[in-house]
Specification:
The protein is mainly α. 60% of the residues lie in helices and 3% in strands.
Length: 330
């Protein structure tokens, strides 16, 4: 019968290492998958932060926490499928005991500790294939263990959001802020103080709710009304263009009414029928009829539509000449 290892309660020390190692040779990178090459490039630019613990210096810590020795973790591999995370803990829906929780946080920080030691050993040097493999191995353990902790504590966010009464904050935004606070809490939690992670995380989640409520109130103070997309676009240019069109039509009607362009009776009838000018005034109505086609106008005056087109073009030329003369005179 196996017993779960007891976790030593010691207050860890926060440490950070800025990587200065150089990427491996191209021949080494060629044996690594594209996904892992991208992960390695990202690791070389990110600071490694972890909470140190006295047990990390012991040779058997890797075996106790992950079930592998340091030598096994350093074995080179070619494909990411050959190096699945070996972090083992509770299921994603299980409630963690205090001892299980502390062990998960020790796993995550130990994996980061091993990454920091690799960067320190290769400071200013080029990473070897063995070092790159081990670095990616421990990075996968960090991700696996971190995900396990987050998934076990996601219900905290939902519970806190339901208990919090914030009518002016969208529920989805509240959940999003709570999840971000949970992720930050996982990275900063000190399991060596003897407290449950939920105690620390709940406080951080509530603070994030307060921040999003304050941000929402500040926004509503500046913009008290709801967002209206119709207010984002001004119709001034459109209204100005419509007014210009109305003025031009009125001017054309005046020219036709007074026959200032020297049009004959047939040309006047064709222009009025084709462009519906002056017909509303004659009918005494408010809505002008639709413009008539060449064929319809031809039936009115007893000619073919081609002849109507010729009459229309001759009348438009006279009107254009009159408008240009008025413009130059002005």
């Amino acid at each position: 019968m196996t017993h779960e290892h007891e976790v030593e309660i010691v207050s860890p020390v926060a440490r950070s290492v800025v990587p200065s190692a150089k990427p491996p040779l191209e021949s080494v990178l060629a044996r690594i998958s594209i996904e892992d090459r991208a992960a390695l490039d990202r690791l070389l630019t990110e600071t490694v932060e972890y909470l140190d613990h006295p047990s990390f210096a012991r040779a058997r810590t890797a075996k106790d926490l992950f079930g592998v020795t340091a030598e096994q973790a350093a074995q080179p591999w070619v494909n990411s499928a050959d190096a699945r995370p070996v972090a083992k803990g509770c299921g994603t829906n299980a409630t963690l005991t205090n001892n299980q929780e502390q062990k998960l946080f020790l796993r995550m920080n130990y994996a980061r500790y091993r990454m920091a030691k690799l960067f320190q050993a290769h400071a200013g040097k080029r990473l070897t294939g063995k070092a790159a493999s081990e670095l990616l191995f421990w990075q996968r353990q960090v991700i696996a263990t971190r995900c396990e902790i987050v998934q076990a504590n996601v219900p905290l966010v939902l519970a806190m959001a339901k208990r919090t009464r914030m009518g002016n904050v969208d529920y989805a935004e509240l959940i999003s802020e709570g999840n971000m606070a949970l992720l930050r809490s996982v990275d900063k939690f000190d399991c060596g103080r003897g407290f449950k992670f939920s105690t620390y995380a709940c406080r951080a989640i509530l603070k994030s709710f307060s921040r999003v409520a304050l941000k929402s109130n500040r926004y509503r103070g500046r913009f008290p009304t709801e967002f209206d997309p119709s207010l984002e676009k001004s119709r001034h240019a459109e209204l100005l263009r419509e007014q210009v069109e109305i003025d031009c039509v009125d001017e054309l009607r005046g020219i036709l009414r007074q026959n200032l362009a020297d049009l004959n009776d047939v040309e006047v009838r064709v222009i009025q029928a084709r462009f519906a000018l002056g017909q509303a005034a004659q009918a005494g109505g408010d809505v002008e009829p639709a413009p008539k086609t060449l064929e319809q106008v031809g039936d009115m005056i007893g000619v073919t539509k081609e002849r109507v087109r010729q009459i229309q073009n001759r009348a438009l030329a006279k009107l254009r000449s009159k408008l240009q003369d008025d413009f130059l005179a002005a």
